[in-house]
Amino acid sequence: MHFTASDGVFLAFAAITVGSAVVVTLARSLIYSAFALLFTFFGVAGLYLLLGADFIAASQLLIYVGGILVLLLFGVMLTHKLYDLDLKSEVTQFAPAAIVAAGLFVVLAVLGFRTTWKIGPGRAPSATTDEIGHLFMGQYLLPFEAASVLLLVALIGAAMIVRRKKEA
Which CATH number is associated with domain 1-114? Predict the structure, then answer.
């Protein structure tokens, strides 16, 4: 079996992703879990880059790391300071979760090894961001803008629900 440099990079990203995901689920502190989630998101973005999906990797970094994770960290930190709570997460029902995870792993491994994978000639690595950008701003402009308006309406609705005062 021949081991190449790209195999090593893949294994490194996979180890970072899986290892930090384990820390996310098993850490008792929410802060440690959130920072481990940062490494999980970076590992997934690296795996996307190895697959040649540069747009999805950039979206992963911008949306998940730049938006969701920062929001989660600020929420945890501000809530901790505001209420002076000891934010600890409990590891409950570890044995049933481990059994389900091991069973799912076995099923996926068996299916993965029994499946005959069709490998085509492939395509030359090229940047996909330019092509996706032209499609978003050309052929798919209307659905793209409709989705953005829908997300804006959902954001305004969520803000209205939060700001609604309780009637006594």
Answer: 1.20.120.1200
